[in-house]
Every structure is written in C-alpha cells, then in structure tokens.
Task: inverse folding
C-alpha cells in the first residue's frame, strides 16, 4: 500500500492549489479526481467556460451594436455560429485543464482518477472506472470536493429544457425565451450571454433585488444597466412550479401581492445557488461530521473534528468562490508544514462578470449600518473618466466606504469596465489598512478606469473629487 503525507480528494482550484503547495513544501502528495480531467467545476463547467462565452458574446454584441460608431463597417449580415462559439469555449477549457495536469507532473504529484472515499481516518479507497479499488494510506487528508448546482424540491431538472449552468454552457441552439430562476451571479452572467446572442431573457428573483448579497447600490445600478439591454426582471416573486410541455417550459410564481404570474419560454435556467458536494465520501467511516446541508464543520485551521482531516472550499462555511478555495488550500498546506498562515475572509473579493462588471470587497453600507459603525462615503461615476468615454463604457461607479473617525477603508464597491481587475487595488489597500486619503494621494495612470478609485477616495476625503 502506497503511503502519502497528504491526499486531496477533489482537483478544483482549492484541491489542486493545495496539492501544489504541499509538494512545494516537501510533502509526498496525491490528488484524487473522479472525472477524466482535472480542475473541478471552476475549470470544466464554471468560471472558465462561462467567461469564455461571456467574452465571445461580448465581441458579437460589439460587432452588431458598436462597431459602426467606431468607424468599423462590416458588409453583409453578422451571424452567430453557436457551435463554433461552444467549441472555442471547450478549447479554452481543454487548454486550462491540461495546464493543471502539467503542474501536477511538474510538482511530482500522484494523480488518481477515480472516486475517493474514506475507509478510515488514514486510509482512502479509490474506485477506478473499471471497477477496481485501490487503497492508499494518507497521514493527512484534505476534502476539496466542491459543490454542484442547487435546485428547488419541486423542480425536475431534465437537463434538456429545464437546465442548470452546466447544460447552459453547451446548448445546441440559442433560446427564443430563456427564463432564469435566480438573480444571482450565475443567472445574470449566463442570462447576459444568451441575451446578447438574441434570446429574450426573463429573470425571476425571490428577493427584492438582484445580487442580494452585495451592496444595494450595486444591485440597483446593475439592474438599471441590464434593463437597458432589454433583460426583464420580476423581483419578489416566489416560484412554485416548473413544468415542461414538449418544447415549452411553463413557470408559475406568486408575486409580492400573492397573485399568480405565469411565464412561458423554451428554456428555463435554474440558478438558485450551489450546494456542497460531499456525497460518496463515506465520511462517517473516518468519523468526519457532515451537517444536514452537506457542509463540513471546520475550526480556524480548517481541521474537521478529526484532526488529520481538513476541508476547504465549497464544502465548508463562507462564499463559494474559487479564489477563496485557493487561499484555503494554501493555508492547510502551510499549516501542515508548521507555518502560521492566515486568511482575512473580510478581504476576499466578490465579482460578477457581466458587462459592466461588478466587484466588491469588505463591508457593505447595510452591514456597517447594522453594526452601528459611523462611516463616510466617496463615490465617483465612470462616465466622468476620459478612458470610459474613449471606450464607450460609461455605466457604473466606484464607491468607497471609510471609517468616519479614522478614515480607514472599510469597503469598496464598484461597477463598470474592468472592475474584476480593479478590485484588487482595493484588496491590496485594505490588507495594509489604508485610509481613503492614502489611496487619494497615490498616483494613478491617466487615462485609466483605475482613476475612478482615486477619485472615489478623494470624494471620501473631505468631498474633494477633482473631475465631477
């Protein structure tokens, strides 16, 4: 029986990063993945493929709506080749997954293809595709099995017309009318993809605003922009049934007044979040406790109730984000090596990759008000930037929340072009406990979108933004 210092179940961003860091620190490392490709949900059916389709559809939208204004004239009709678009997406996925395999080989990490389950706290059975079972011994184990799309108990996902994000990434046709249940990140991103390609898109959201976990100002601005793009929204609607009849899907919901509203489309995307994937682990054999929601409880060191077994990423508390899982994978590896790593969960950014992009880090206004913390606000509109006018990306703003007494930055919330990249400036500043004035006094290149961060910081510092 082969012995390892650490075995990781799951090869998503959390798992494969944990494996690399463990190997870098001199541990004999194994990673177990049930699918034939590495990378987990993120690389195969999540972050990477969705961004590929978002970029492709964005190019198409620019070609039909904005090229002429830029002085670019294309003779003839511009058409979508969905098959080729999906194929390009898959090639991006394949290259990225191959990159992870290269990293496993480079770091001399043993990769097992099969379903990993605990025999006991130090032994893991790996069931291969051919039915054979191999058992390995692991001094320490990391559970990194991720999550899968959640649904509602009364919905039957046929994966043809009533679909999850996985199927939405490989449709054979552009929907005529895509009904999206859930106004969160996944629903809005994929909804925008198909809206750009010509589908009618209707979003049904149970809460009174979209992206409800983010600052309310971002929710309001994003919905305003998406409405301009002809996406329809039905907020405070409780879906109660989803029925497929041939090529039609009928969704019934009750509105805020309790009145029944009926929606009809040819596809329905169910995007009501994700749930931890811990099935098949046989965690009980190792003594690991899993709650009724499928989550694994961990301490501040990400240890489960069994000291030599750790859990990271979507199977534990907190936001289900690939970069959160990566940080946790690194933390566990360094803990095992006797180091003293730390994660500040308040400073893990969240991003929505629609266009305009939405990004945030730290506290929202609602959270500061609830906590009774006195704060000041600095906000700056993207349309006041020369760079935004040059690129015709005028929507959005940057908002900085700073402590009213100390001026320390407590939260940064932004919507606009390239905000997914801009948010890192805010994370860096907040990691070093910068004040709004610190950011305001930093030189920002001109013309850039990043100038909006400086201007928002100036606005938070005695209301002295320069360009509004």
Result:
């Amino acid at each position: 029986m082969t012995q390892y210092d650490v075995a990781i179940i799951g090869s998503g961003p959390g798992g494969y990063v944990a494996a690399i860091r463990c190997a870098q620190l001199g541990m004999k490392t194994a990673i177990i993945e049930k699918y034939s490709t590495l990378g987990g949900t993120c690389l195969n059916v999540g972050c990477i493929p969705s961004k590929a389709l978002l970029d492709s559809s964005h190019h198409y939208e620019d070609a039909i709506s904005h090229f002429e204004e830029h002085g670019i004239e294309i003779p003839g009709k511009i058409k979508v080749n969905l098959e080729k678009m999906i194929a390009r997406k898959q090639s991006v996925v394949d290259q990225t997954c191959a990159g992870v395999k290269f990293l496993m080989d480079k770091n001399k990490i043993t990769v097992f293809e099969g379903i990993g389950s605990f025999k006991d706290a130090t032994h893991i059975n790996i069931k291969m595709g051919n039915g054979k079972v191999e058992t390995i011994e692991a001094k320490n184990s990391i559970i990194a099995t991720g999550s899968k799309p959640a649904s509602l108990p009364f919905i039957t996902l046929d994966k043809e017309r009533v679909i999850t994000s996985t199927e939405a990434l490989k449709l054979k046709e552009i929907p005529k009318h895509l009904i999206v249940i859930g106004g969160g990140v996944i629903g809005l991103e994929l909804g925008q993809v198909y809206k750009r390609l010509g589908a009618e898109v209707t979003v049904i959201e149970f809460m009174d605003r979209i992206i409800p976990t983010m600052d309310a100002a971002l929710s309001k601005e994003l919905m305003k922009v998406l409405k301009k793009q002809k996406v329809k929204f039905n907020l405070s609607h409780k879906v109660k049934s989803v029925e497929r009849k041939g090529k039609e899907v009928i969704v019934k919901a009750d509105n805020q007044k309790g009145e029944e509203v009926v929606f009809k489309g040819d596809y329905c995307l169910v995007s009501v979040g994700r749930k931890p994937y811990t099935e098949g682990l046989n965690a009980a054999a190792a003594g690991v406790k899993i709650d009724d929601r499928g989550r694994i409880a961990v301490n501040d060191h990400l240890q489960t109730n069994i000291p030599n077994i750790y859990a990271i990423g979507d199977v534990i508390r907190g936001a289900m984000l690939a970069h959160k899982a990566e940080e946790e994978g690194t933390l566990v590896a360094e803990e095992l090596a006797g180091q003293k790593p730390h994660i500040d969960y308040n400073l893990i950014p969240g991003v929505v990759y629609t266009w305009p992009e939405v990004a945030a880090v730290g506290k929202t206004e609602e959270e500061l008000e609830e906590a009774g913390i006195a704060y000041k606000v600095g906000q700056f509109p993207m349309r006041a930037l020369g760079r935004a006018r040059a690129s015709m990306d005028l929507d959005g703003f940057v908002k900085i929340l700073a402590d009213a007494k100390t001026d320390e930055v407590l939260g940064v919330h932004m919507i606009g072009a390239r905000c997914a990249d801009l948010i890192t400036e805010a994370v860096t500043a907040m990691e070093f406990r910068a004040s709004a004035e610190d950011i305001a006094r930093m030189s920002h290149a001109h013309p850039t979108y990043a100038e909006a961060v400086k201007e928002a910081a100036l606005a938070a510092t005695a209301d002295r933004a320069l360009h509004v």
User: Anything to note?
Assistant: The mean pLDDT is 97. The CA atoms of residues 58 and 342 lie 38 Å apart. The chain has three domains: 3-149+275-343, 162-272, 347-460. Residues 3-149+275-343 form a domain with the FAD/NAD(P)-binding domain fold (CATH 3.50.50.60).
